[in-house]
Amino acid sequence: MKNILLYISIVLLSFCTSCSDQYLEIFPEDKITTANFPQNEADIKLTLNGVYALLRESAIYNEGLFGFGVLDGATPNAFNWGNFPITKLGNGQLSATDADIITFRWTRCYAIIFRANYLLKALEQVKLPDAAKNIYKGEAHFLRGLAYSLLADAYGGVPITNTSLTTDEAREIPRASKEATWNQVIADYDVAIQNLGIKAPEIGRADKGAALGLKMRAYLYQNNYEKVLEVSQQIEALNKYALFPSYEGLFKQENENNSEVLFDVQYISGENSQGSFHDQFCGTGTGSFTRGSRYVPTDNLVDAYETIDGSPVDNANKFKNRDPRLEFTVVIPGSYILGFRFPNYLYPGGAFNHPGNRLKHLSARKYRENQLANLPTSGQSAINNIVLRYADVLLAKAEALIELNKNIDEAIGIINRIRTERKDVKITSIPTGLSQSEARIRLRKERRIEFALEGLYWSDIKRWNIGKDIYPVVVKDHLGGVIETKFPNGYLDYYNLLPIPVSELSLNPKLVQNPKW
């Protein structure tokens, strides 16, 4: 959808307000109002684009929706410098009065829901061919379901509204249960699946596979493994997706929208602010040699990677003979990026003392620009961020088989596809004949490695309820000095849900805060 203009937020605000019947029915022809909008399919498409626009993250500090790599900073995978809420979320210092991820995810998701509801109402007012109307209807439900899924994963049960509301009405809606919220997610995805085709009308828009994939994830995040298997089979029946031959190439702009991608968020570089800060703040200082990484991979993550042949790691040369995904994910000492040998190039221009460079021996590589000549200006990275890819479908199916104890060897075979099927990742296969508990360990480790720095580990830790087993985690710098200890007194279970924003509690007396926040 990179050819679709997404800068219509202000336009939408102008027509999403109601007009009073007391005014004379004389409407300006040079402005969009509820009196003259929408009138035709072009207006409907403009409205739809406005919903998609909200999926983009223009400020890396918020990390309100998918999180992508930065959300890994709230896990043992990465370290976030600064006293930001995303940092506090990762080390046990978060407060209900903090902002950024707490408030942004809530408000942005409800903005998506509001616009999707408006689109559905608009579809009732505009005459369209049934085939076109069904597609718009499917996409509206897809986007609304996606928003509710993000809310359910973060906050648990939330207020459910599927119609346009006044401000006063919105302040009177109580929280639904967590189960009811997830049920709403599934219901929306079901409508999307029913109405969307196997091929999207344009690149970047949702299709049946995207809706099925995110429905599968919704079941996965509820640990409903029977349903995970059912939906994964429906995805396979589309005969559309495959592992991309190059793991490294998955995260490069030239390979976007490939056969492994079920759904991604589209970015465009240029003057219209449709690019991303992701590369700038999460890479190795790209865009400026004086800017350090917003988040940095940890030794805890590096140590989780296996060797290619399954032999013990050589502590004297710890980066030799390692799973190739390590170097495709992390910039390790001695490797090159932007034409410079890491980590030496970080130091010119005073960057040596930048707080983001306290882990000077590691940096992130996924989703990074790798050629100095092609560096975008600040905030204009055009690399899409993948929300769901086929590897997730495979590992979800493997996890379901293991947890249901149905066919452990089949599950191991699926995991081994991830380890051997790509041209640039060939590591020792996991043997069959494992017990359920042994297979579970291998599956969870494989998910962590396969999706490292993609923002999924935070949700995995919560749904597996393993925080108490993996924390505390000590983060050290390149000299072995301790920078931070994540959850130094052990993981706090109530961190499995974010607090409801206090600003929302003050507006709606029927909202109840999550326990212990």
Give the helix/strand class.
mainly alpha
Number of helices: 18
Trace the largest sheet across and list its strands: 1-3
Radius of gyration equals 23 Å
How would the global form be characterised?
A: globular
Domain SusD-like N-terminal: 41-220
Main location: membrane
Family: Belongs to the SusD family.
InterPro entries: SusD-like_N, SusD_RagB_dom, TPR-like_helical_dom_sf
Short summary of the structure?
The protein is mainly alpha-helical and 517 residues long. It contains 18 helices and 10 strands.
Structural overview:
There is one protein chain. This protein has about 525 residues and is mostly helical. About 40% of the residues lie in helices and about 5% in strands. It contains 18 helices and ten strands. The strands form five sheets. A two-stranded antiparallel sheet has the order 1-3. A hairpin with a 2-residue loop joins strand 5 and strand 6.
Can you give keywords for this protein?
39% helix; mainly alpha; single chain; disordered N terminus; globular; two-stranded antiparallel ribbon; 18 helices; two-stranded antiparallel sheet; 517 residues
Topology:
Layout: H1 9-15, H2 41-53, E1 78-80, H3 85-91, H4 101-123, H5 130-155, H6 167-170, H7 178-195, H8 208-220, H9 225-237, E2 261-265, H10 278-282, E3 295-297, H11 299-304, H12 325-329, E4 330-331, E5 336-337, E6 340-341, E7 363-364, E8 385-389, H13 390-403, H14 408-420, H15 436-450, H16 457-464, H17 467-470, E9 473-476, E10 482-486, H18 502-507
Antiparallel strand pairs: 1-3, 2-8, 4-7, 5-6, 9-10
Helix pairs in contact: 2-4, 2-5, 4-5, 5-7, 7-8, 8-9, 9-13, 13-14, 13-15, 14-15
